[in-house]
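About this split. The held-out portion is used to measure sequence recovery: a designer receives only the structure tokens and must propose an amino acid at every position. Recovery is the fraction of positions where the proposal matches the reference. Here is one held-out target exactly as it appears in the evaluation file.
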């Protein structure tokens, strides 16, 4: 298996941010890598291109030349000079007449050389397209049109207002490390998002993952009786639903037709009313992305879907909520109030088997995912509870201050990044500084109670002491 790069911050919930060494924004590869550094990843083909840049330039700096025997790692090898050397790049100057190799490459966006040479005309969310054909938000991409970060008093601690926890409704299927609804620690969370409900590919009506998951809907919403300030929402879809299979295009198929949208709205509202859900979280991963089953029409369809869903929910006479879960960079140019945005945190870690046991730092190469966890049973992913046990057994732990993440290494070649009390505080402070409206964690049931206690403490939230009343017959036992 070919080696890849172990990157910083891989436990940041929905976000996957890889950091490169010695970035130089005035170079072609630097522009490409800056996009990877600055934006959250949505697994599209362009992301794989940027990963290749990281790997290609891990051990060499500013070598963007090519030849007949040396193709570009990213981009087209342009016309060769008298010495037989060329330069890597995008657009007609490199990929057009005289192109030596890799002539199929297209840029991420069109800086003016036409759709023949680019994947899209403009960048998503109207971010800047650099002269090299990559999307971004900083001066290297926008020139003088930089976008200022929002400002607010840090003392306001805006990110403490909401603490959203996703609950994996299928966690009962794990052999250990389970959490039943009644075991969810109350008081910390302002919202619980029950994950996931599905959609029938033929009728576009709401569907369940399995009976065990469905049997827990009402048990989770019943927690509001013990914690009246809590809201419980239903999260729809999820990453796996856009894997190859019968569900892959269902969201696109539903969203592009208003008649199909109406079928889904009716079913969704019925489900929310039957079980007492307070809102819906749409976890479509990802609209438009071809490698995730998306189509170009998703861009317009999703906007129309959300507008019509909001209008329909408003007709129900109660304030149902709607949220989106996407791994996107937070962009203020569209006048999005940062208090309506929450940052994602992970109660799990991405783990790797490293290529060279003598190179265990962030940026070193890895071969594959680390060994499966006892309870999670998936190579490359470990729950917070599993990581805690590894640390207790004597693993080495270091702090990466740049990424605000802890790196845990053990058994000579095993590596995982994760958050503990120290790094959760660092990320919460970061969210305060950017005026965000809260935090969310994936997932409640991956923690043994340690991390949520730390995050709750940093957010000024404490576990509720729930007193379960004894049956009335018990109250009158004994002598009168």
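Reference sequence for scoring:
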């Amino acid at each position: 298996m070919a080696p890849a790069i172990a990157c910083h911050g891989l436990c940041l919930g929905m976000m996957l941010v890889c950091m490169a060494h010695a970035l130089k924004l005035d170079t072609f590869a630097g522009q490409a890598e800056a996009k990877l550094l600055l934006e959250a990843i949505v697994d599209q083909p362009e992301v794989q291109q940027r990963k290749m840049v990281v790997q290609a330039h891990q051990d060499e700096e500013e070598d963007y030349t090519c030849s007949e025997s040396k193709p570009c790692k990213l981009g087209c090898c342009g016309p060769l000079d008298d010495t037989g050397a060329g330069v890597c790049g995008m657009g007609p100057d490199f990929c057009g007449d005289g192109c030596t190799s890799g002539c199929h490459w297209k840029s991420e966006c069109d800086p003016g050389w036409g759709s023949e040479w680019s994947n899209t005309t403009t960048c998503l969310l109207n971010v800047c397209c650099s002269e090299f054909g990559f999307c971004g938000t900083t001066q290297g991409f926008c020139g003088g049109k930089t976008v200022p970060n929002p400002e607010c008093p840090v003392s306001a601690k805006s990110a403490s207002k909401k603490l959203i926890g996703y609950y994996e409704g299928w966690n009962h299927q794990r052999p250990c490390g389970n959490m039943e609804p009644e075991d969810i620690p109350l008081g910390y969370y302002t919202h619980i998002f029950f994950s996931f409900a599905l959609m029938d590919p033929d009728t576009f009506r709401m569907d369940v993952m399995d009976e065990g998951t469905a049997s827990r809907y009402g048990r989770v919403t019943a927690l509001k009786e013990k914690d009246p300030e809590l809201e419980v929402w239903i999260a729809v879809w999820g990453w796996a639903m856009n894997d190859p299979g019968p569900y892959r295009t269902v969201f696109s198929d539903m969203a592009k037709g208003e008649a199909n949208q109406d079928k889904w709205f009716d079913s969704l509202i019925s489900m929310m009313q039957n079980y007492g859900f307070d809102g819906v979280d749409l976890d479509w991963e990802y609209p438009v992305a071809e490698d995730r089953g998306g189509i170009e029409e998703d861009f317009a369809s999703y906007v129309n879907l959300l507008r019509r869903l909001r209008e329909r929910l408003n007709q129900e006479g109660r304030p149902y909520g709607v949220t989106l879960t996407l791994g996107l960079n937070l962009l203020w140019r569209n006048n999005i109030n940062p208090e309506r945005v929450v940052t994602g945190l992970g109660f799990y870690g991405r783990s790797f088997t490293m290529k060279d046991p003598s190179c265990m730092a962030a940026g070193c190469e890895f071969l594959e995912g680390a060994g499966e966890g006892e309870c999670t049973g998936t190579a490359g992913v470990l729950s917070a509870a599993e990581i805690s046990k590894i640390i207790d057994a004597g693993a080495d732990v270091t702090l990466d201050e740049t990424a605000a993440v802890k790196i845990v290494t053990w058994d000579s070649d095993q590596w995982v990044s994760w958050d503990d009390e120290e790094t959760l505080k660092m990320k919460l402070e970061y969210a305060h500084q950017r005026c965000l409206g809260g935090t969310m964690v994936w997932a409640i049931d991956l923690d043994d109670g340690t991390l949520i206690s730390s995050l709750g403490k940093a957010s000024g939230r404490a576990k509720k002491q729930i007193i379960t009343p004894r049956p009335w017959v018990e109250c009158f036992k004994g002598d009168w």
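Annotator remark: The CA atoms of residues 46 and 164 lie 31 Å apart.
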